[in-house]
Specification:
mainly alpha
Length: about 230
């Protein structure tokens, strides 16, 4: 138990470190184009995840409810202040630490592989899905770090916290979590990922972290499905 998350953390740190070294040698125009490409792919990933569920009302209601809670708690501001604090302390201004930390933390922790993989690791000790996710996150962290800088490395801590918590708590939800609940969470996460892509493309900056509570509402809305009037 927990081996998959450990592999994932190492993959993000390794990919991010390599990306920082590579990024320092890339021309500014190339980094800008690479960021746009990442933004496009992020949009497509968000759409693919959203289509995991046939009923769009579940992610819609989840996002609205999550936004209310997230705005009240000011989650986005908290995360960005944390990133800005680290940037002021350790960076010389050339690295957008806050943006890198928030973007990659959300991207690495919102998706079906995160949830299903961590649950399987916790329930059966099978970390094959998290190993696959680790390979994908290695490439993603390398690419993001090459463009956004060393702030990507901080997302390894988020992966450890989120996936580790799901793995440790898997025994508590065994027999409770259904495939429909996972699909609902994945589809809701797709909305958040799509919003990330809009920010990366500089189309519209969305306070995505304030939408995070939506991921907690989605599975319970599925449970309440029989009570819906439509």
């Amino acid at each position: 138990m927990g081996i998959g998350t450990a592999i994932n953390v190492v993959a993000v740190l390794a990919g991010g470190s390599l990306g920082v070294l590579v990024g320092a040698k890339l021309p500014k125009n190339m980094r800008h184009t690479a960021l746009q490409t990442i933004g496009i792919v992020t949009l497509l990933v968000g759409v693919a995840n959203f289509l995991e569920l046939d009923n769009p009302l579940v992610p819609l209601v989840s996002v609205v409810l999550g936004l209310v809670v997230g705005e009240a708690l000011g989650l986005d501001a908290v995360l960005r202040r944390f990133g800005d604090h680290l940037e002021q302390r350790f960076s010389r201004g050339e690295s957008p630490v806050s943006r890198a930390f928030v973007t990659t933390s959300l991207l690495f922790c919102v998706g079906p592989l995160t949830i299903i993989g961590a649950l399987e690791d916790g329930l059966t000790g099978d970390y094959s899905l998290l190993a696959l996710k680790s390979a994908l996150d290695f490439v993603a962290s390398l690419t993001f770090a090459a463009v956004l800088g060393w702030g990507v490395l901080l997302s390894a801590g988020t992966v450890l916290l989120v996936q580790g918590s799901i793995t440790l708590g898997a025994a508590l939800v065994e027999g409770f979590v259904t495939e429909a609940m996972i699909s609902a969470t994945t589809a809701t996460g797709g909305v958040l990922i799509f919003a990330l892509g809009l920010g990366l493309l500089e189309i519209k900056e969305v306070r995505v972290a304030n939408l995070l509570p939506a991921l907690a509402f989605a599975p319970f809305l599925v449970l309440a499905g029989p009570l819906w009037p439509f």
